[in-house]
Amino acid sequence: MAKLIAPSLLSSDFGHLADEVEGVNRSVADWFHIDVMDGHFVPNLSMGFPVIKAIAKAARKPLDIHLMIERPDDYIERFCTEAAASVLTVHYEACTHLHRTLQSIRQRGVKAGVALNPHTPVSVLEEILPYADMVLLMSVNPGFGGQRFIPTTLRKTEKLKNEILRQGLSVLIEIDGGVGPENAGELFAAGADVLVCGNAYFSSEDREETLRLMKR
Ligand code: DX5
Ligand code: ZN
Fold it and tell me: Is 80 exceeded by the pLDDT of residue 1?
């Protein structure tokens, strides 16, 4: 089982973005988590291509791009090329033809992720799991950093892990929202492979120690 940490740049200081990216480059973190919001799928806007391209230029670790947008198909090509995604995640709730969407991500040599909102049960993934490289479970309602972890996500993680094992797959499980040193251990134990941390990392007085605690 992988034990990866992906700091979410949404909580970083955008006035010093290059320094924030360099800090993650030098840390023991594994990926950059990048949250894209369109003001429709979620009640907030975040960053678009000009900012992500600047991040991609400075980043020396994989970019894990989380699209909280409607009609993600319209932008897959650009996120895979211009934005240099290593993993590109779309929301189950935003895709009418999810199989086609995941296929078009994979065809571009990028890992395809599916995200579930807190209210969406993992059972909806049964048929699509073989076509996904990662499932992102939202452990807060998407749209904002710094929210409180929804505790039922633990049980949901276990259920998803069991289904992945039942199908004999190696799909990664990522947990996103309200994650930090206080719940990282139980999430990894429940079957999580990748933990996103925004506030817990960027607001920490000792970021490296926070990462170490989370990986332990
Ligand atoms: C929320 C985003 C998360 C968020 C995580 O919509 O998808 O990635 O930035 O931030 P924290 O860790 O502060 O909850
Ligand atoms: Zn996210």
Answer: no
Per-residue pLDDT, 106:
98
162 C-alpha to center of ligand 1: Å? 25
Residue 35 falls in the annotated catalytic set: yes
- Mean pLDDT value across the chain: 98
H/E stretch holding 33 reads strand 32-37
Q: Is 38 a catalytic residue?
A: no
CB-count exposure of residue 100 (10 Å: 0-12, 13-18, 19+) = exposed
Our measurement of the distance from residue 192's CA atom to the centroid of its chain's CA atoms, rounded to an integer in Å, reads 12
Q: Which of 38, 64, 133, 176 is flagged as catalytic?
A: 176
Neighbours of 117 (CB within 10 A): 17
Distance CA 197, CA 182 (A): 12
For the beta carbon of residue 96, count every other beta carbon within 10 angstroms.
8
Task: Ligand 1, residue 42: give the atom nearest the CA.
Answer: 6
**In the chain, what are the domains?**
4-215 (3.20.20.70)
Buried/exposed 61-75: b ≥16 CB within 10 Å, e otherwise: bbbbbbbbbeebeeb
Beta bridge pairs of residue 116: 137
pLDDT tier, 2 (very low <50, low <70, confident <90, very high otherwise): confident
- Position in ligand 1 atom list of the atom nearest CA 139: 14
CB 209 within 8 A of CB 180: no
Return the SS3 of 186. helix
